[in-house]
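Let's practice the habit of predicting before peeking. Look at the sequence and jot down your guess about where helices and strands might fall. Then scroll down.
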Amino acid sequence: MRPRPRIPCLPAWLLLASAGLWLAPSAWAQDGAALRARQSELRSALADSAFGRPLLLESVQRGDRLSGEIHAVIAQPFALAAPALQSQQAWCDILMLHLNVKHCLALGSGADRRLQIAIGRKHEQPVEDAFDLGLGYRILTSQPDYLALRLEAAEGPLGTRDFRLMLELAPLAEGGSFLRLNYSYRHGLAARLALQGYLATLGRDKVGFSVVARKADGSPVYIEGLRGAVERNTLRYYLAVEAYLDALALPASQRTERRLQAWFDATERHARQLHELDRDDYLAMKRRELARLAADRAAAN
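Done guessing? Here is the structure:
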């Protein structure tokens, strides 16, 4: 990838902000028992989830920090999911499912492991025109019954900072695993105004998932604005993790295509919030991006 400016044009920044890649820290479970205790606390809410499955999504805005978080029961056993998610390359495969992620290289080793990603428009775009973001990759804890990891960047464009993606995973006695995924970032005035400007124009019809009111006929009124943007992308990235894990049962040669199709189908189940491209357009774009990425990796090796 050729060097690109550190400060992108405004549209690239808006996509980067709404891509939900920046996450702020919150309390860790610290071990498998604590995370399973959290699942027990949420058992009733998970059973009564508006998503029709054991998945909860919430967002919080405190001062200059914006975050989204998912708790979910997944079908994959911990013995399968945990080793897979500890792979640095796996996170490139996961992130590349997102519309706005155009390139991803797993670089470095040891404490210097990182993902170099390129963020662009939701449509076709030369990777040279995208914005480079380096994400530090850290496995915080890897135990027989608990995994904790994070991707992080200290600074981003237009005064944003403290970008983090955090994941925790623990096995459940009844089978499957309990997963927690958290995204957040801090924003300055310029960043906030830029994203609010987008949400007032091109993104004015966008909503999240939290129900903030009911209309006279009982239909829901969904949250909008900054929290709505974080909620949309929190779910997009959770669905990418899910699509990645679901495809592990297939032969390696079939996994990439299955992940692309599964991710798109999953987002379309929430078309009110997540629809951006038609299926054929998404698949064609991603196939080209992945082919370009494979060529770049081969050249690097």
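How did you do? Confidence is low (pLDDT under 50) at residues 1-25.
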